[in-house]
DNA sequence: TCTAAATCAGATTATTTTATCTGGTTAAAG
DNA sequence: CTTTAACCAGATAAAATAATCTGATTTAGA
């Protein structure tokens, strides 16, 4: 089985959604994120470091340090997180793995697939963290059920 | 970057499309498929063996042996190939990797994502090999360009 | 019958992805 | 000033995926 996003990207999206579900500007430690989301702590730490480099979140070192969103949740799109971690290759490479893709030589599925892929891209571009806050809170509340 | 289908599945789909682009009932060797599609021969051989076990293609051993579709191309859907290789997990697991998915506790993206996923599933279910024959021929003709 | 060309089965290797470890630096609080 | 709780950076290990290898069996045809 394969998947749309890498584990890194899934965890990154979860973590950023988690941050957005908190108070705006609130600081959360990697440890809390790892515990609440059941993600290996060392792994999520690395991912949070990446997202910090990408300018999506800020980090604060030292005691009572942690991570917070670098912008208002309304200004962080899901596609930004995906681009920072997995990149956008998934939206330009062939579903069937054929080489030499071009408008003249599309793969057999392109017509059908292209439309879906564009929808997915648009969806990730339209959805911002703030729009998902309520649903995230609801999901988080039931994670350890 | 990640991808929808595993390499195995991509190659499997390519190979089956290639078979369907040939004469109905025609036998093609793993060697020819590997050369034409630029896939490692040993790898595609293994995949073809899998598809044979799954009943999607037939194999003929010995000199002038090879592989052929087990059914008429109109009766082989893309989803059948995907199910045989990657399985259908991708259509039921969470895009965001959240656990405990249920109608009561969907992940924040489910509403938007579910629709897309269903579209993808339907597309793969509706598309049969024969419908893609012309496009496959066109793509194959330009692979080594 | 013998050879060549093919599939088949299982083991092995290589590469990528996922996860962990180790030691260091930063900064709040007593 | 010292302790403690956090991030940081780079190396390492484990697991999954992709690819290759080895030897056997099958079968058409010279
Ligand atoms: S045309 Fe085919 S090969 Fe090119 S991107 Fe679209 S799906 Fe992929
Ligand atoms: S609800 Fe969310 S968690 Fe469940 S399947 Fe849909 S996308 Fe995944």
Q: Which short descriptors sum up this protein?
A:
145 residues; Arc Repressor Mutant, subunit A; two-stranded antiparallel sheet; DNA-binding; binds iron/sulfur cluster; elongated; homodimer; 48% helix
Descriptive account of the structure:
2 copies of one chain form a homodimer. Chain A is mostly helical. The first copy, chain A, has a single domain (7-144), classed as Orthogonal Bundle (Arc Repressor Mutant, subunit A), CATH 1.10.10. Chain A is 48% helix and 6% strand. Chain A has helices at residues 7-21, 30-37, 41-53, 78-85, 110-126, 133-141, and strands at 57-60, 66-69. The first copy, chain A, has a two-stranded antiparallel ribbon with strand order 1-2. The radius of gyration of chain A is 17 Å and the shape is elongated. Chains A and B meet through helix 1, helix 5 and helix 6 of A and helix 1, helix 5 and helix 6 of B. The complex binds iron/sulfur cluster (2 copies). One iron/sulfur cluster binds at residues 94-95, 98, 101, 106-107, 109-110, 113-114 of chain B. Chain A binds a DNA duplex (30 and 30 nucleotides) through residues 2, 6-8, 29-31, 40-43, 45-46, 48-49, 52, 59-67.
């Amino acid at each position: 089985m394969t998947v749309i996003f890498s584990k890194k990207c899934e965890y990154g999206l979860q973590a950023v959604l988690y941050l957005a579900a908190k108070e705006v500007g609130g600081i959360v430690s990697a440890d809390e994120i790892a515990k609440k989301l059941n993600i290996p702590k060392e792994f999520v730490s690395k991912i949070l470091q990446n997202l910090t480099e990408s300018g999506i979140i800020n980090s604060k070192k030292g005691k009572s340090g942690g991570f917070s969103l670098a912008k208002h949740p309304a200004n962080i799109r899901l596609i930004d997180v995906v681009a920072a971690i997995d990149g956008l290759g998934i939206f330009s490479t062939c579903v069937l793995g054929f080489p030499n893709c071009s408008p003249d030589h599309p793969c057999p599925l392109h017509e059908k697939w292209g439309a879906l892929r564009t929808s997915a891209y648009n969806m990730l571009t339209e959805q911002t963290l703030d729009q998902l806050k309520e649903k995230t809170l609801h999901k988080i509340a039931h994670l350890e059920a």
